[in-house]
Amino acid sequence: xxxxxxxxxxxxxxxxxxxxxxxxxxxxxxxxxxxxxxxxxxxxxxxxxxxxxxxxxxxxxxxxxxxxxxxxxxxxxxxxxxxxxxxxxxxxxxxxxxxxxxxxxxxxxxxxxxxxxxxxxxxxxxxxxxxxxxxxxxxxxxxxxxxxxxxxxxxxxxxxxxxxxxxxxxxxxxxxxxxxxxxxxxxxxxxxxxxxxxxxxxxxxxxxxxxxxxxxxxxxxxxxxxxxxxxxx
Length: 233
What we know:
GO molecular function: G protein activity; GTP binding
Pfam family, one: Ras
CATH class: Alpha Beta
Radius of gyration: 17 Å
EC number: 3.6.5.2
Number of domains: 1
Order of helices and strands: EEEEHEEHEHHEHEH
Enzyme class: hydrolase
Protein name: small monomeric GTPase
């Protein structure tokens, strides 16, 4: 059964706006399958930020290891994972930083922003306060992030859960406010997780100023699109 994923893009130019329902991305464009002997062309630093308990660690572990632990403990300080993706035949290494959301760890956060090319902001659709707090996290990036054009994505997690408190439209409005990517996902069912990371990496690759000047250039293939012109993932 093919999972259909909604994804919305509000980045770069003000008019850049792809919104709608997409299908599966064509195989071979992006994947986590790669040749271990193939040298990586670059390393991208990705941060995952949000309140405690929204599922940041679960999203990271689902993407990196394809596992889900319903008893996943809260992150203490920061967790760190390294993986690689194949982007149009080029190996890209990803350094993914999972930050703690508890108040007592927030003084550690500024140092983790340095050099980040992509930032994922996560909230729990069953807990409105976690979305309200994203205004704080999103504003904080403007202060501490050393790359002004870092790609930002808002992920609405736990869409598999009942008693939803935040509608998709509200999440979309928040993402539009900060000109960020937006996607709904479930770390438990896997829906939207792979697509979220793929879209984020694709946008980073398409932003030349985020690349180190001594890295070799490569051409990213055109993103797959559904028949109605919306983003396919």
